[in-house]
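pinging the channel bc i need a second pair of eyes. not urgent but kinda urgent?? the chain im working w is below, pasted from the shared doc
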Amino acid sequence: MSRFFQDLTPLSYAPESDGLAFRHYNPDEVVMGKRMEDHLRFAVAYWHSFAWPGGDPFGGQTFERPWFGETMEDAKLKADIAFEMFDILNVPFFCFHDADIRPEGASFAESERNFKEITDIFAAKMETRKTRLLWGTANLFSNRRFMAGAASNPDPDVFAWSAATVKLCMDATHALNGENYVLWGGREGYETLLNTDLQQETEHMGRFLSKVVEYKHKIGFKGAILLEPKPQEPTKHQYDYDVATVYGFLKRFGLENEVQVNIEQGHAILAGHSFEHEIATANALGIFGSIDMNRNDYQSGWDTDQFPNNVPEVALAYYEILKGGGLTKGGTNFDAKLRRQSLDAEDLIAAHAGAMDVCARGFKAAAAMLEDGALETAKQQRYAGWQTPQAAAMLDMDLSGIAGLVDPDSAGPQPRSGRQEILENIVNRFV
């Protein structure tokens, strides 16, 4: 173990422990016929855990990490520390952006060499480790060249640079046997319509994504291509606002059968939705792929990327995931970061362990609710009228035909209770 983690050892499932341990997450526990680890498919986010310096809009770096720096030696040390942490947490997956793992070079070619050297190190480590790559992605938002977007940028040179970067990251993800490839349009939007050609920008985004899908098939990548919806912050308005907006975008370019969504809890809240709403919408539209698990501070009104600690919220999210068939190639990526006052290595381990426990509790509650069946039975009863032959036939009639079904002497149908409070009480039995 490195000096950074010192005496920290791999965590175990120890419900009665007073130290660092899992109290609810038992990877080998079988739930609904499958190991919990295989259901939840936890992943560590490289960017927040190893690249974020602890700053905020009003203050700079608070973390002092031995790998912080702009040399390849720093990047190699970061990789060593990262895989030590993966071992301590016994996580099956991790995720990264290109800029998280390598220093920026003086040219594209130098950045590419740096990136390939680190991904080769990843490949060597993965030969003897458990942890695999859930997904890779490209950072097309941090560098000032992306201040007006990447695929939607008004400068064609930035469009080309972005395409070359995505190609590089897709190649690496494919070489590392990644399960998915994610595109997150951190600045694919606008600050003001006064300087924006919205039609051209969205057209270019669609063409860009089509080229990504074409390249996936060209190289034989078997993973899913995922888009991550986000409504705002840093831009005033982003084109991939929420799941429904993304679906409309995919339909416009004929990509609804090629691209799925990676849904983040914090982004769902910023869009004015709940996490479970976005998951249910993605399932209904057939584009659910994976999740980024975190939470926002509901008093701050922006994307604070905190580790999850609300079991009822998590349970409702996993309930919708289980109803849709579960996480297949997707996973539960902790797109979450320490608070800037949490400085120690132990804080990094404790944050992930606690989040994994919260997810395990929520997941087991969701599985129990689904197996109990009371919620689904109540829903079926509410829509039972549509199971009659007359009701089913009505969907194929014109308006005149439907109007003919109404008894002119009738006083009209009477409403029935939606029973929301009763259903919420059922949920509360489990969480």
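so The CA atoms of residues 206 and 253 lie 6 Å apart. and The longest strand covers residues 132-137. — does that match what u expected or am i reading it wrong
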